[in-house]
Amino acid sequence: FSLLALKVMRRIRRWNALQPLPRTLVVAAVCGLAVAVIGVASGGLTFGTGYAQARGAIEGTPLPALFFVEKFAAGLLSMVSGIPGGLFAPSLAVGAGLGSTLGLVFGTATGTAALLGMAGYFAGVVQAPMTAFVIILEMTGNHDNVIALMCAAMLGYGTARLISNEPLYHALSRVFIAEAIRRRRAETMPAPG
Questions:
Q1: Distance from CA of residue 64 to its chain's centroid?
Q2: How far is it, in rounded angstroms, from Cα 176 to Cα 85?
Q3: Torsion angle, alpha carbons of 12, 13, 14, 16, to 10
Q4: CATH code where residue 39 lies
Q5: Distance of CA 50 to CAs 27, 88, 173, Å?
Q6: What is the pLDDT of residue 40?
Q7: Segment 24-74, tens digit of pLDDT
Q8: How many domains are contained in the chain?
């Protein structure tokens, strides 16, 4: 998710450079329309944060098999649209959907599989395994699976590091800092002529 989001956002920034406002509006509109289509196709399951779906999966209600793919796509489109939105809750929902699907495939308990999916996916997206582990442990209050949650978070983190060596929040902060420096330079430079 992180690598794909960062690559798409870089391309969009380059494309937007020539005509920032019109092109930003086009990107936002296209992404918004695509999120709406995904939402309608999923029966409304991908709209919103995904808390209800994640909670249901943790409580043992399996999610539709492709929910995690639909929520992944909706989250990615929302992020690259340029409109501020959430990363935290949608990542937990994608992880719960992935875990739920894997639980169905392997014939394990949906709730436990959803918890492990949440830990692994969220740790991979933010590349912060301890944060993922602690957040999910605190959210659920379930201390029965402490070791399994730690292992899932470390596996998600390790896999993400193989794919993208830069954490998402670090890369995003670098972009904002670079933009702030460019603006400051533009303000302090003398006017031509």
A1: 19
A2: 16
A3: 80
A4: 1.10.3080.10
A5: 24, 10, 25
A6: 97
A7: 999 999 999 999 999 999 999 999 999 999 999 999 999 999 999 999 999
A8: 1
108 within some domain: yes
DSSP state of 62: P
Query: For residues 179 and 170, what is the distance between their CA atoms, to the nearest angstrom?
Result: 14
pLDDT grade for 112, boundaries at 50, 70 and 90: very high
* CA–CA separation, 155 and 162 (whole Å): 11
Tokens of 19: 């005509």
Angstrom distance (rounded) from CA 116 to CA 38: 25
Which residue segment(s) compose the domain that 110 sits in?
2-167
With respect to residue 111, please indicate whether it lies within any of the assigned structural domains. Answer: yes
State residue 192's pLDDT score.
Answer: 65
- Model pLDDT for residues 97-111, shown as the tens digit of each residue: 999 999 999 999 999
Task: Tell me if 132 sits within 8 A of 126, measured CB to CB.
Answer: yes
Phi, psi values for residue 61, rounded to 5°: -90, 115
Q: Is residue 126 part of a domain?
A: yes
Return the closest-CA partner of residue 86 out of 111, 122, 112: 122
137 in any annotated domain:
yes
